[in-house]
Design brief:
The complex is a heterodimer. Chain A is mostly helical. Chain A is 72% helix and 0% strand. In chain A, helix 4 crosses helix 8. The longest helix of chain A is centred in the last third of the chain and has 35 residues. Chain B folds into 2 domains: 53 residues, no CATH class; 222 residues, MetI-like fold. Chain B contains 13 helices and 2 strands. The two termini of chain B are 14 Å apart. Classes of the chains: A mainly alpha, B mainly alpha.
Amino acid sequence: MTTTASTAVSRKPIRWGRVAVHLGCLAALLVMLYPLAWLLATSLKPANEVIASLDLLPSHLEWSNYKTAFEGVNDVSIWRLLGNSLLIAGGAVLGNVISCSLAAYAFARLRFRMRGPLFAFMIATIMLPHHAVLIPQYIIFNKLGLVNTYWPLILPKFLATEAFFVFLIVQFMRGLPRELEEAARIDGCGPFRSFFKVILPLTRPALITTAIFTFIWTWNDFFTQLIYLFDPDKFTLTLALRSFVDASSQSAFGPMFAMSVIALLPIVLFFLAFQRFLVEGMASSGLKG
Amino acid sequence: MTTTQTPAAPPARAAAPTKRRPKRQREGAAWVFLSPWVLGATVLTLLPMVVSLYLSFTDYDLFNPPHWVGLRNYVQMFTEDPRYWRSVMTTLTYVVIAVPLQLALALVVALALKNMRHGKGFYRSAFYAPSLLGASMSIALVWRALFNDGGTVDHLFGNGGWINRPGWSLLAVALLTVWQFGAPMVIFLAGLQQIPAELYEAAAVDGAGKWRQFVSVTVPMLSPVLFFNLVLQTIQAFQVFTPAFAVSAGKGGPADSTLVYTLYLYDRGFVASHMGYASAMAWVLLLVIGAVTAVLFRTSRSWVFYASEGDR
């Protein structure tokens, strides 16, 4: 809409400006994508070429890097690491989608005492640095004997601790017409039926956004996994990559980056499949507030 | 920010017939829906905050019971621990470098894409991709290699890579944040597209050129979005961890130049098992982030313009 209005004023002479903008964007894009291209190329380079030159392309494709990567780290196969990562991310997605949509429905549509203050508190916890609650949470899970299990990584998600997503879904639900629920109420639906039958199906875009962001953030998460998981066979891909940090000699570069590529692959696939949801979810989170 | 407009939810048809029962039932239903959140908010947020405040006045190593030491942790932090101050300065430097650079780049790219006719969606997605990938260990390792001795940056500038030089290593970490400018850029772009075209038309009729339109229309209309991005990115930047960890193998080196606050907190609490000290650090971080946010909100009154003020 804005486009037409502001360009209609000066249509003809701007052509070269357009070309310049495109060239600038492409140049910026090349710089931006260089680290990714470098990663892909290095994952296929023979050990002696990794730091020897600026050449992006390897002299020959060293597929054995991937073979080594698939053997895993610390005697734990990559399938195990991948499975662990998927388990945590999958649990987090399930937890966030369920608990955040429940809480969001109450905040968006139901009336209860203290709603205003509780909503304000919920918003405040979005800003709360994770570190402020980290140590006592660790102590609680330690007392419960749950350190070095996946519970500390998954359980909090079932308790709607990621308020950002509650907020995101609240904003979306507020945009749904109230008439729908009123019609459902007249048809005899209580709050539970109207939530499951009417509201939840309509909230799908926000739930998908929540699911994708939760997956990616949990997949990338390092700090929480670092403090809670010790056993190599409970490690995730991220933690396995971390063990390269301590002991990396140049010869391990190829396999390390091959494993890095494997670790990024799910995110790249998610991004390609859902980029509209991601970009728009991000855009709306900043505006409707 | 949003709180003010929430209680305005109309009572729907609550005041319909004279039945009192459904209303109470619905209040009960609300608490059923809220119960996971209530449990999480009390047990995993409120209680831990209180506990960590208590622990910050104790000596605690996870194995022996906490031992009350009064203000000693705070005194030690502020007066006897040079590494603490080092981590404070490192984090502040990082925030001051990374956040403005990232937001400036995001704004420039958003402005460039705003009026683009072809390829806008493509660029938007492509520039956004690093925001999703950048938080990963994989990319942190790439960064370490790119800025290491013999890495691309060394080949280009010939100064032996940045991550081994105390004056430069933090800049390498900051550039990883700048690289992820796509998320604020997407928010800027959405904000730019919500500026009504009439404002530009009116400005043009009044004889305003491109620059004048930018200063008098775009900047004020975009200021709430700019403010949102500034607050969000600043809060996040204060908590940076993974890249600093990866670049320095968890040590914060060289010469503590990448010892950001959270890395030192991790080191004190989880490596050295000084949970009391780490709790004190966490509370100071909480207070500082709260104070910075409050200051941003306070100054925002003079530069953030809300077009919808009054009619909302």
